Amino acid sequence: MTPHEHPAEHKANPAVESAPLHPDAVENVRANLPDDEFLYDLAELFKVFGDSTRIKVLFALFESELCVGDIAQVLGLSQSAVSHQLRILKQSKLVKFRREGKAAYYSLDDDHVRSMLSMGAEHVEE
Q1: CB distance 16 to 44 below 8 Å
Q2: 117 touches 62 (CB < 8 A)
Q3: What is the pLDDT of residue 4?
Q4: Phi, psi of 121 (to 5 degrees)
Q5: Could you tell me the mean pLDDT of each successive run of 10 residues in the chain, 126 residues long?
Q6: Which residues contact 105 (CB under 8 A, 6 or more apart)?
Q7: Separation between Cα atoms, residue 104 and residue 108, nearest integer Å
Q8: 105: which strand partners?
Q9: pLDDT at 82
Q10: Which of 63, 77, 106, 115 could share a disulfide with 81, CB 3.0–4.6 Å?
Q11: How many CB atoms lie within 10 A of CB 114?
């Protein structure tokens, strides 16, 4: 599959049409494999984690709810760079915000995000 090909366009490879060595295992896995659209969405989510600046933003928010200016100060980035990354993180439902007057305060969207960051960090440290 090419990088820009949607999973629904993916065709079975005729070279892989040989009989499986373990047909029961193959059928069990095939029956439990999520559909292509779900896998595509999951891959898109993981792409968001593929940028070290976004990871820095997430780890900053792991520690505390912060406004854009505070995140920029913590990470040594411009506010526009932080806003750009926050927009991507919001679209992926990894961060949320609340308004207080004119200020917007950002935090991790939920405990799932916190768990993904923790598990990723544990895996890297192994």
Answers
A1: no
A2: yes
A3: 55
A4: -65, -45
A5: 54 65 90 94 94 96 96 97 97 96 95 95 94
A6: 65, 66, 67, 97, 98, 99
A7: 13
A8: 67, 98
A9: 97
A10: 77
A11: 14
Given the DSSP bridges, would you call strands 95-100 and 66-67 parallel, antiparallel or unpaired? unpaired
Q: Can you tell me the distance from the alpha carbon of 73 to that of 110, in angstroms, rounded to the nearest whole number?
A: 24
The first and second tokens of residue 28, run together, are: 């069990």
Nearest alpha-carbon partner for 44 in 80, 9, 93? 93
Q: CA angle 35-110-83, nearest 5°?
A: 95
pLDDT score of 68 = 96
Which residue bears the tokens 């993904």?
Answer: 116
- What is the reported pLDDT for 123? 95
What 8-state DSSP symbol labels residue 49? T
Rounded Cα gap, residues 92 and 48, in angstroms: 8
Which ranges of the chain does DSSP label H, i.e. alpha helix? 23-32, 36-48, 52-63, 68-75, 79-91, 111-125
Tell me the residue type at 101: G
Instruction: Give the pair of three-digit tokens for residue 112.
Output: 């799932």
Strand partners, 108: 95
Q: Using CA atoms, how far apart are residues 60 and 11, in angstroms rounded to an integer? A: 42
Q: What residues contact 55, with CB distance under 8 A and at least 6 apart?
A: 49
